[in-house]
């Protein structure tokens, strides 16, 4: 075989290999695209801003609720109280997720929103008890509100894309500014303990994408911002199940499949 034939074969192999790699990348990245239930960008982003404002109102209720809990001085075991709160909320949110249509229209949508607002305020207050009655007690809800407000203000323009990466960047920029402020005030370590507020804001923007793209089957209309705000809470059980399935059960299932596939293979 001549040198020219070898060069041609090498070029062909390189092209084929590059094509195979690109196909694998497309398969790994899931090239499927999901259309929004609301095709027009302006009413869709207006819907997002409205139910983000409602979520901010819910989170703000945790401030007076936590003060009331400190006045009452709850004496029961905090761990038992948190576990019981999580179990009750998961049962309540699962019910809202499985039967969503009845809470779509008034007056039921307002009643359910009131219940979720109270549950959010109480659960967040129970979480904040561990920090004690200090001046940094209300930093957690304040940071979450600021993060959601920054994302909501970004959606007021329709020229730039509001992607998931942009939302995460805004969330961490806001939290970073609070870290800088805490550093100059000598409370940097306490602020790091509130890192969970970024996860809560991230979940909200993540579930916003799923809800508006029809993953949950809600088919939200532009005027159903109260219904959309409740959906953020109702989707929590499914989100937790996805995490458990992929992070906890996923490696165990892969290990069982590995054993099953290798049981008839020759060793040597």
TrEMBL record:
Keyword presence, Ligase: no
Keywords in alphabetical order: Membrane, Transmembrane, Transmembrane helix
Localization: Membrane
GO cellular component: membrane
Main location: membrane
Family of this protein: Belongs to the BI1 family.
Record flagged with keyword Nucleotidyltransferase: no
Protein source organism: Drosophila virilis
GO biological process, one term: negative regulation of apoptotic process
Membrane-topology annotation of the record: Multi-pass membrane protein
Gene from which the chain derives: Dvir\GJ15115
Transmembrane segments: 51-73, 79-99, 111-130, 136-154, 166-185, 239-259
Entry-linked InterPro entries: Bax_inhibitor_1-related
Protein name per UniProt: Uncharacterized protein
């Amino acid at each position: 075989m001549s040198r020219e034939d070898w060069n041609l074969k090498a070029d062909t192999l390189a092209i084929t290999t590059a094509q195979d790699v690109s196909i694998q990348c497309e398969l790994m990245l899931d090239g499927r695209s999901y259309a929004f239930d609301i095709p027009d960008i302006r009413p869709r982003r207006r819907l997002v801003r409205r139910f983000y404002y409602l979520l901010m109102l819910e989170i703000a209720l945790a401030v007076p609720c936590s003060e009331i809990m400190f006045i009452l001085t709850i004496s029961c075991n905090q761990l038992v109280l948190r576990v019981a709160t999580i179990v009750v909320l998961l049962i309540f949110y699962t019910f809202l997720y499985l039967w969503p249509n009845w809470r779509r229209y008034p007056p039921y949508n307002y009643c359910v929103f009131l219940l979720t607002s109270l549950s959010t305020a109480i659960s967040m207050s129970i979480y904040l008890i561990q920090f004690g009655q200090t001046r940094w007690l209300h930093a957690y809800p304040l940071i979450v509100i600021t993060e959601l407000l920054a994302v909501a203000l970004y959606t007021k323009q329709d020229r730039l894309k509001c992607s998931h990466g942009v939302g995460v960047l805004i969330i961490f920029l806001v939290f970073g500014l609070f870290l800088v402020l805490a550093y100059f005030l000598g409370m940097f370590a306490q602020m790091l303990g509130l890192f969970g507020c970024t996860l809560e804001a991230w979940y909200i923007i993540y579930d916003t994408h799923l809800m508006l793209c029809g993953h949950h089957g809600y088919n939200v209309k532009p005027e159903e911002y109260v219904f959309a705000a409740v959906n953020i809470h109702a989707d929590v059980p499914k989100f937790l199940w996805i995490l458990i399935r992929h992070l906890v059960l996923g490696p165990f299932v892969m290990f069982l499949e590995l054993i099953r596939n290798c049981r008839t293979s020759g060793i040597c």
